[in-house]
């Protein structure tokens, strides 16, 4: 029982690392889009 729980926990940990990595990329892209929009507004002023 403990072995199954440990294996499941390890698999979830690996999946979480990949999910966090993907989320970091998405947040970075969103930040770049916001920066670009802010620059466009500054240029328009």
From TrEMBL:
Keyword Cell membrane among record annotations: yes
Keyword Transcription regulation attached: no
One of the record's GO cellular component terms: membrane
Xref: Pfam families: Entericidin
Keywords linked to the UniProt accession: Cell membrane, Lipoprotein, Membrane, Palmitate, Signal
One of the GO BP terms on file: response to toxic substance
Family to which the UniProt record says this protein belongs: Belongs to the EcnA/EcnB lipoprotein family.
Name of protein: Entericidin
